[in-house]
């Protein structure tokens, strides 16, 4: 008997941005359907397609690298930058494509969908329901922005070489002398794709495949992380609100009553449990994405320097070709860093809010619990790339400064 797909899927998929997130990752075979209980034939086919993608991109990476090695003496400096960009992007795609094989990634996504999403916590209070609506609105906006970036990136990457070929007269009856077709990605091939129109057409159509998969893996994985971060910030806002609403005795100056201390004990237990949920999920995110973020930051370190070096020639072709790409790369670095900085800034407020709780009215038992809680929240939460480098505004500024320093050094050697 064939196993069917889950009849009742998690309720978070009633939200449009969660549906879009899952659907788009499924198109590149990288949504962990089976970890979420989907054992249907469709899930098996997507898992098989995912393995096919990895094998395909490993092969195309070899072909692109072979082309660079064979023609490295004749490739112009401007075109060499595009080859390096394609190689680095493919390498980053392969690293992200390995995530569905990792238990930590599958565990993190499953926990987010089934437990951590604010939809599972909106019953806590009226403020929690309000926070859910706010976070959902932010996630919808972020989803639209990421999808717009993907559409513009894919069109620009493929249509720019097409317009250049048209401008240079490559589609005329006779090909111009000393000219060849330009592609968004170059490969070492057994047929002529640079002077033959049929060969050009084959590679032009094929290049839409990597220029969909690679930006999608970059953009949608970023979106997945952003959605998790926004929900974590929402959890922290709910926790901060719970701390602000801690009650005081009805009459100040009088000893606290037994009923008051019992109420405080229950509230302390709830906020500590909520804080532990946030902290545990932060640990799951770190285990799932620390290596991914490490590779991501290293990619930006190299690419920011490369884009500055290419644009520094001030040639119109270089500025047109790499100006927009440089803006996108810097923008991605900034938005990722700012997203993780939100977690740090919110967690730093926890210490002050916990200390502002009316602990002076508590009995000895509650004070002991309170002191332990206060000690734990002194350490701000945050995600570290590779378990070493904190991701945030400081790491962003360090990468930009280092890229500028490397660019100046390389430009000096070139001169």
Automatic annotation (TrEMBL):
Stored InterPro entries: 7tm6_olfct_rcpt
Gene Ontology cellular-component terms listed: plasma membrane
Membrane-spanning segments: 49-69
UniProt-listed GO biological process terms: signal transduction
Keywords from the UniProt entry: Cell membrane, Membrane, Olfaction, Receptor, Sensory transduction, Transducer, Transmembrane, Transmembrane helix
Single Gene Ontology MF annotation: olfactory receptor activity
RNA-binding is among the record's keywords: no
Top-rank taxon: Eukaryota
Membrane topology qualifier: Multi-pass membrane protein
Subcellular location: Cell membrane
Main location, first listed in the record: membrane
Family classification: Belongs to the insect chemoreceptor superfamily. Heteromeric odorant receptor channel (TC 1.A.69) family.
Protein name: Odorant receptor
Organism name: Cydia pomonella (Codling moth)
């Amino acid at each position: 008997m064939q196993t069917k797909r889950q009849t009742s899927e998690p309720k978070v998929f009633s939200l449009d941005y969660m549906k879009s997130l899952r659907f788009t990752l499924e198109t590149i075979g990288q949504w962990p359907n089976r970890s979420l209980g989907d054992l249907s034939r469709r899930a098996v086919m997507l898992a098989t397609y995912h393995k096919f993608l990895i094998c395909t991109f490993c092969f195309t990476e070899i072909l692109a690298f072979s082309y660079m090695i064979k023609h490295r003496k004749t490739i112009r400096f401007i075109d060499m930058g595009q080859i390096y960009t394609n190689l680095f992007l493919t390498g980053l795609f392969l690293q992200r494509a390995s995530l569905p094989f990792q238990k930590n990634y599958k565990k993190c996504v499953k926990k987010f969908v089934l437990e951590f999403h604010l939809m599972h916590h909106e019953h806590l209070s009226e403020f929690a329901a309000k926070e859910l609506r706010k976070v959902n609105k932010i996630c919808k906006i972020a989803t639209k922005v990421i999808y717009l970036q993907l559409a513009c990136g894919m069109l620009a990457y493929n249509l720019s070489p097409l317009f250049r070929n048209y401008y240079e007269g490559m589609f005329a009856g006779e090909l111009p002398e000393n000219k060849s077709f330009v592609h968004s990605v170059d490969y070492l091939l057994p047929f002529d794709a640079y002077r033959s129109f049929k060969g050009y057409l084959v590679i032009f159509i094929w290049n839409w495949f990597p220029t969909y998969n690679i930006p999608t893996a970059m953009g949608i994985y970023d979106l997945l992380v952003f959605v998790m971060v926004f929900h974590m910030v929402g959890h922290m806002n709910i926790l901060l609100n719970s701390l602000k609403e801690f009650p005081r005795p009805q009459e100040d100056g009088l000893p606290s009553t037994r009923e008051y201390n019992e109420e405080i004990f229950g509230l302390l237990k709830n906020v500590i449990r909520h804080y532990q949920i946030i902290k545990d999920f932060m640990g799951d995110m770190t285990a799932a994405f620390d290596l991914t973020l490490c590779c991501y930051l290293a990619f930006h370190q190299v690419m920011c320097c490369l884009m500055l070096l290419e644009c520094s020639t001030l040639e119109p072709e270089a500025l047109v070709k790499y100006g927009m790409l440089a803006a996108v790369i810097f923008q991605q670095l900034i938005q990722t860093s700012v997203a993780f900085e939100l977690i740090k800034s919110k967690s730093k407020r926890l210490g002050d809010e916990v200390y502002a709780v009316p602990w002076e009215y508590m009995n000895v038992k509650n004070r002991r619990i309170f002191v332990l809680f206060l000690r734990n929240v002194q350490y701000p939460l945050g995600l570290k790339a590779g378990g070493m480098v904190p991701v945030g505004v400081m790491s962003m500024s360090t990468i930009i400064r280092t890229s500028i320093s490397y660019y100046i050094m390389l430009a000096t050697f070139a001169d």
